[in-house]
Amino acid sequence: MNYGYEAIAIGRRILLELFRTYRTLLLWVIFPISMLLLNGFVLAEGSKITTAESFKLAAPASLIGSALFFSCLGGTMSTIVAERESLTIKRLLISPINGISYFLGIFFAYAAIGVGQTLIIYTVAAFWEVRFSGSIAVGALVILASIGSYVGMGFVLATKFARKVEDVNSLVAGFGVPLLMLGGAFFPTTFLSKDLLLITQFNPVYHMSEAFTALSTDSKSLTSTDMVLHLRFLAGFFIVAIASGWLAYKRMLRKESHL
Length: 259
What we know:
By secondary structure, the protein is mostly helical. The protein has helices at 2-21, 23-47, 51-85, 88-93, 99-125, 136-160, 166-183, 194-200, 204-217, 225-257.
């Protein structure tokens, strides 16, 4: 139980710090809305489908591929690097707070932001009569697994490659943008060639986006072979990302304890 209380306290502290600066949170509100509008209208014009149909397809892709990626992965990296620079990590080493609590606290903080972005996107999409058609429980699991995967990846990238806060933007751009383009965040994967479609099979963003799109647009798609493949890949990647993030975090603590 102490882990839970400590993790919630750490998550609350991170959220309060973001609220005090408010600019980051404001951008994380504006960004998903702008991506949804751009994807919706561009898809309607380019694919010659109705605006309602385009927003039904754009909402899940904008959420998984854009909003959650930049907030949960980029935000996790920024938090870890900033707290390492401010010596918060060193203070953690001499405090009674357990390392597991800190790890979970960051997940709770960005899970709260991710849930907020989900509500924002589907509230705006509701103006075009977009409704979530699939299983809400499975959809929530896909969102949480996606958030956990991004947070785990954020721990790995932040502890391995980011030394200063300035490094975060270049890492997110260099590492993330190709994944997003091949994952269907900016345009449907049907526009990709056969060779690029083969590459997307190893892209976690693609499987997250396809799984959530299938759930949100067709409640019967859960029984399809492709849907099972997407969910299995997502579950496996979630485990790998969390395990890798935890190992990278423990390695960072050992390194910080000797500096």
